[in-house]
């Protein structure tokens, strides 16, 4: 399969945790634990709160650390009268490479629908940020057996109007809502079923080169002890990690999953 040509990506979504001082300590621990070779083999990215981005940027740039960073959300709008929002251009100026778009917590607590998510994907791409586009079904949808159709429809909605060139720059993350922060991980086969379907949809809509190159992550209770088996699936290229990314040793162990692969 084409998997070996896709560089694995481990992204730590810190959510609304870690103030800017603790962010510095956490990034330092990651950087001191992971070797240059490890950081070449696996791309490691942290996604702090907005208030920590400047501190993280200063540290990573100043010490030339081989860690990527990005934000957890952005406004769909250009700079202007949008109190409390953050524009993509501001994130780009801070050196962010990534921005999470459409996380299920944003969809649930901020009523973000596919139209808003699509506008945010566009805003990210317009500012040369790589969107980490999150899709995934809730428990009711899974129990009704509609998880594949639901998730593929979210992908379609978020990428509506984007060209193949643009979609080639997107990272997708499949995060079943029932697995987030619950300790209930999807089985590797469950995750592969959906992620395989997402890749097939990218192939159908945007062609082979986009589908073969696209990195698709799994997220939802990823821990050091389940990463290797998840990463062994043919279409899974990395993980979007919540809780375990707040503990340096755990996130480092996740990034070292290859040591545990049979
Ligand atoms: O939502 C997630 C990452 O974006 C997953 O969170 P947990 O790893 O805490 O389940």
From TrEMBL:
<dbReference type="GO" id="GO:0046166">
    <property type="term" value="P:glyceraldehyde-3-phosphate biosynthetic process"/>
</dbReference>
<dbReference type="GO" id="GO:0019563">
    <property type="term" value="P:glycerol catabolic process"/>
</dbReference>
<dbReference type="GO" id="GO:0005829">
    <property type="term" value="C:cytosol"/>
</dbReference>
<feature type="active site" description="Electrophile">
    <location>
        <position position="103"/>
    </location>
</feature>
<feature type="binding site">
    <location>
        <begin position="242"/>
        <end position="243"/>
    </location>
    <ligand>
        <name>substrate</name>
    </ligand>
</feature>
<keyword id="KW-0413">Isomerase</keyword>
<comment type="pathway">
    <text>Carbohydrate degradation; glycolysis; D-glyceraldehyde 3-phosphate from glycerone phosphate: step 1/1.</text>
</comment>
<keyword id="KW-0324">Glycolysis</keyword>
<dbReference type="InterPro" id="IPR035990">
    <property type="entry name" value="TIM_sf"/>
</dbReference>
<comment type="function">
    <text>Involved in the gluconeogenesis. Catalyzes stereospecifically the conversion of dihydroxyacetone phosphate (DHAP) to D-glyceraldehyde-3-phosphate (G3P).</text>
</comment>
<dbReference type="InterPro" id="IPR022896">
    <property type="entry name" value="TrioseP_Isoase_bac/euk"/>
</dbReference>
<dbReference type="InterPro" id="IPR020861">
    <property type="entry name" value="Triosephosphate_isomerase_AS"/>
</dbReference>
<dbReference type="GO" id="GO:0006096">
    <property type="term" value="P:glycolytic process"/>
</dbReference>
<dbReference type="Pfam" id="PF00121">
    <property type="entry name" value="TIM"/>
</dbReference>
<dbReference type="InterPro" id="IPR013785">
    <property type="entry name" value="Aldolase_TIM"/>
</dbReference>
<feature type="binding site">
    <location>
        <position position="181"/>
    </location>
    <ligand>
        <name>substrate</name>
    </ligand>
</feature>
<dbReference type="GO" id="GO:0006094">
    <property type="term" value="P:gluconeogenesis"/>
</dbReference>
<feature type="binding site">
    <location>
        <position position="221"/>
    </location>
    <ligand>
        <name>substrate</name>
    </ligand>
</feature>
<protein>
    <recommendedName>
        <fullName>Triosephosphate isomerase</fullName>
        <ecNumber>5.3.1.1</ecNumber>
    </recommendedName>
</protein>
<feature type="binding site">
    <location>
        <begin position="13"/>
        <end position="15"/>
    </location>
    <ligand>
        <name>substrate</name>
    </ligand>
</feature>
<feature type="active site" description="Proton acceptor">
    <location>
        <position position="175"/>
    </location>
</feature>
<comment type="pathway">
    <text>Carbohydrate biosynthesis; gluconeogenesis.</text>
</comment>
<comment type="subunit">
    <text>Homodimer.</text>
</comment>
<dbReference type="GO" id="GO:0004807">
    <property type="term" value="F:triose-phosphate isomerase activity"/>
</dbReference>
<keyword id="KW-0963">Cytoplasm</keyword>
<dbReference type="InterPro" id="IPR000652">
    <property type="entry name" value="Triosephosphate_isomerase"/>
</dbReference>
<keyword id="KW-0312">Gluconeogenesis</keyword>
<comment type="similarity">
    <text>Belongs to the triosephosphate isomerase family.</text>
</comment>
């Amino acid at each position: 399969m084409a998997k070996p040509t896709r560089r694995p990506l481990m992204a730590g979504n810190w959510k609304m945790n870690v103030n800017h001082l603790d962010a510095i300590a956490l990034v330092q621990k990651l950087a001191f634990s992971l070797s240059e070779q490890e950081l070449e083999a696996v791309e490691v990215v942290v996604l702090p709160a907005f208030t920590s981005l400047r501190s993280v940027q200063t540290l990573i740039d100043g010490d030339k650390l081989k860690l990527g960073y990005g934000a957890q959300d952005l406004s769909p709008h250009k700079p202007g009268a949008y109190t409390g929002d953050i524009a993509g251009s501001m994130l780009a100026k801070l050196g962010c490479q990534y921005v999470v778009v459409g996380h299920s917590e944003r969809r649930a607590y901020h009523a973000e629908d596919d139209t808003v998510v699509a506008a945010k994907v566009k805003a990210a791409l317009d500012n040369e940020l790589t969107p980490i586009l999150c899709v995934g079904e809730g428990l009711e949808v899974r129990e009704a057996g509609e998880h594949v159709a639901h998730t593929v429809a979210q992908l379609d909605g978020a990428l509506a109007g984007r060209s193949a060139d643009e979609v080639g720059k997107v990272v997708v993350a499949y995060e079943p809502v029932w697995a987030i922060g619950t300790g209930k991980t999807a089985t590797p086969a469950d995750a592969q079923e959906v992620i395989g379907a997402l890749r097939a949809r990218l192939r159908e809509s945007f062609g082979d080169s986009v589908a073969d190159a696209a990195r698709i992550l799994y997220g939802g209770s990823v821990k050091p002890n389940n990463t290797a088996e998840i990463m062994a699936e043919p279409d899974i290229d990395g993980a979007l990690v919540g809780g375990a990314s707040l503990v340096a040793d755990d996130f480092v162990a996740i990034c070292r999953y290859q040591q545990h692969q049979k």
